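Q: Make up one entry.
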Amino acid sequence: MSTDRKNSNSAPLIDQNASTDGSLEDTATEQVPSVCPICFGTGMEVVPGKGARRCVCRTKNLRARLLADARIPRRYENCSLQNYYPADARLTQQHAFKFAWTLAREYPIVDRGLLFTGPVGTGKTHLCVAVLRELIDKKMVPCLFYQFGALLKEIQNSYNPISQTSEFRVLQPVYDAEVLVLDELGASKPTDWVRDQMMQIINTRYNDKKLTIFTTNYLDTRRTDKDETLEDRVGTRLRSRLYEMCKTIHIDGEDYRRKLDANA
C-alpha cells in the first residue's frame, strides 16, 4: 500500500450542538486529514544537527510492504538470526550462522550469495529467511522468497489458457528482486524443461549480478553409490555458475523435526 495514499486518509469530525429542546443534532461534518505530526506529510524528518532522514511513519509502512512482498511462508515468518540456535556439537551450523550474519551485516558491500547444502532439518531455510528478515528490518532491502518447486509450478500454470497470469508476470519479480532466496534447489525431477528454467532464472541473475541465496539437500560428493550430487540434479554448466555466484556452505546435523516428534 502506498504511503502517500495512507497520508491522504481522512476521518470525519462531527460537531454536535444541543438544540433548544435539549436534543442533539449534527450541525457540521468536516473531513480532517490525518497527517503525521513528525513530518507533516512530507515523509522526511528533520533531525537537528544531522539533517533529514526518512520519517518513522514512512519506514513502518515500507517495512510492512517489503515483508508482504517477500512472500515468506507463514511457517518461517518468525525465523530470525536471534532465534537460530546451533547445536554446540555441530560446528558446521555455527559456521553457517557466521556467514549468514556477516552477509546481512555487510550488505550491499558483498560480491557473492550463499549456497547452503546439507540434509533435511538442519536449519538451512531458517538461516535464509533470517537473512531476508534482517535485510528488510534493518536496511529496507526488497527481497523475495521462493521454494523452487512452487516457482516451477507457477510457471507451468501460466501456460494454462484460462490462467490469469503469464510467464513474464511470474518470472519478472524473480529476475528483479534485489535479494532472492531459492529454497530446495534440485528437488524437482531434472527434466530438460526443469533444467532450462533453472538456467534461465539463475543465468539472468548471474548476468545482472543480483544476490541470490540457495538451499539444497544435494551435496557435491557422493556418500554412497546411490547418492546423486548437486551437479547431477542441476547440470555441470549451472553448478559452475553457482560456484561463482555463491559461497558453498555445508550444514550437517540431525533432523530437528525428528526431535520435535520424539519430545512430543
Notes: The radius of gyration is 25 Å.
